[in-house]
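for the record, two folds in this file. i put them one after another cuz i was lazy. first one right below, seq on top, structure tokens after. the second one comes after a little note so u can tell where it starts
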Amino acid sequence: MRRFTCRTCGAAVTFSDSRCPSCETHLGFVHEPGDLLPIELVDDSSYLVVGHQGPPDRWWRCLNAAWGCNWMVPTGDGAVWCASCRLTRGRPDESSLDAVRAWSTAEAAKRRLVAQLHWLGLPIAPPSAENDDGLVFDLVYLPESVGVTGHRPGVITLDLREVDHNFREAARQHFREEYRTVLGHLRHETGHHVWRRLVVRQGALDEARALFGDERADYAAALESHYGEMHDQTPDTRPAAEFVSDYASVHPSEDWAECFAHYLHLRDGLETAAEFGLDTIGHDGTLPSMLERWRELSLGVDEVTRSLGQPAAYGVTIRPQIEPKLQFVHDRVSAVARER
């Protein structure tokens, strides 16, 4: 994540701020070019974005501003929701405060995902006649369900109970996961979505199958086998060295999605560290250089959180056997960025 400062007073502000904590200037995030800027109310509903170069002259706050969204919407594009919120097909009934709070938290994580994908050259948008790679999100609150997080073509579903720390921690331990977050779920499921764009359309299927396995393998049978074996093993069993997580070993498509998610983790983590002066050495843009810095940085961050009595922030070991898979992801993402 980039580092932001208030253009009015120079104080540090964060990606999610809608007001400067120092001088109280109202702020809005402009998705293109991806900056947090001061905004001034012009009339009852429209704003001037101070410092924005080019059209439009007037902006609206996203209709979800009351629930924490600080993104701006051009008044002339016919939309009332921002580039992130318009990807969500609905929100929980306002009569359920727990559901609304969970939805608001999940949307904050989704905005980080949408911004990162945009900066990497992988923007996502709703389906349309011109966009057969469209994507929407279903953020659902079903307290009595067995779990609904997953991906179907063009749809990512997130179980909003994942926002609850106790639920997420219990699931993390049950499934023997080192890392489980809302943002991690969103990045993983997005990995499934971009498979066609990054792998199939780039003519890289053979290379992908050589690394991850054949994604056409029976998925239901793979799940049944994995969870059957998992419950027969001791709780501290660790994933095989060639997988970034235990879940990655379920099926080739999950291995790809897990590697894609962890690639986004390390890219965002490295950028944030560099922006805040925590990584003074930096990397040269190649994956080996990035991995070298990420291993050192993530270890340091994990030790800091442990020093504060908290569990490891990341806790995942990127073993040498995983590097070719991450290199493949890096090459696919880089190829799309070069097409821009």
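(here's the note) second protein begins now
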Amino acid sequence: METSIFKFERPEALYLLLIIPLVLGFFMFARYQRRQAMRSFADLAMFKTIMPFESFTRPWIKITLLLSALTMLIIGIANPQTGSRMEEVKREGIDVFIALDVSNSMLAEDIQPNRLERSRQAINRLIDKLTGDRIGIIVFAGKAYMQLPLTTDYNAARLFVSTINTGMVPSQGTAIGEAIRMAVASFDEEVSRNKVIIIISDGEDHEDQAIKAAQEASAKGITVYTIGMGLAEGAPIPLYNQYGKNIGFKKDRNQNTVVTKLNEGLLQEVASAGNGAYVRANNIRSGLETIFAEINKIAKSEIETRIFTDYENRFPLFLGFAILFLFIEVFIALRKTVWESKINLFDKPKKHEA
């Protein structure tokens, strides 16, 4: 199948097009100043007699040609390219879904700077190591939501990771089972390749059948890994106002400070049921490095991706137009020639008296 695609090799050069309105504005201002100066000297109608070679339209024609040439030159510098053939290339990789806990307990600071921020940093480092693997992101608290479907666009993945926060899921809880089932349903079952789910959570306020969901995933050949974010002694949950300022810690009904602790037993059972491994994060390591080492042991299957090849540079066409416009502009004088000044298509011929 053949198709085509258009792109610029250097799109940042297109910012130079902002020069065009600036030049045009300067030209119009200069013409206005000149016209005002002429008004102060004599009536504009008299200038046709005083200055018969003066042209009021040619400067506009010349500036139009100059700006057109400049536009073509800038587009040429950006180098438009077209790709006319699409090829399938095979890359080795696996499909990885990261399910990240965004419940309020992930704001605890027993792992610096806090559990959620440390998780985001670890995910970004994992993305930096991916080569050919597809990654997807699911966020969960009381419910699970798809944040990013499977993709090899790692820049998009980093962008989505940067937007993750505890306000994304209004209902509190730890719906690990729902997140696992969502990931399982999102994998492409028609393509035979290795699939992995990585759960990053503190495991607290667990509400659903996470172990059963992990068993179901394992039965379909999907490996489930878990990373415990938090320390055994736990930490209070900080509260923030709308300006991001810390206003204290979460308290229970008796006004006692709530301490959130890592539910390590649950996460170990989920990993065991999913035929994977469990790693506890701390202030030295995030755990993702260990998991990624385990993932790399999995035989990577081939992923077919389509890319455009044989891009053709189109800048010569635009440079040619730029030269043409400049060539025409050079041969257009600002003033009329003697023979042109004698031409007046609007004067009626005089009748000769008999």
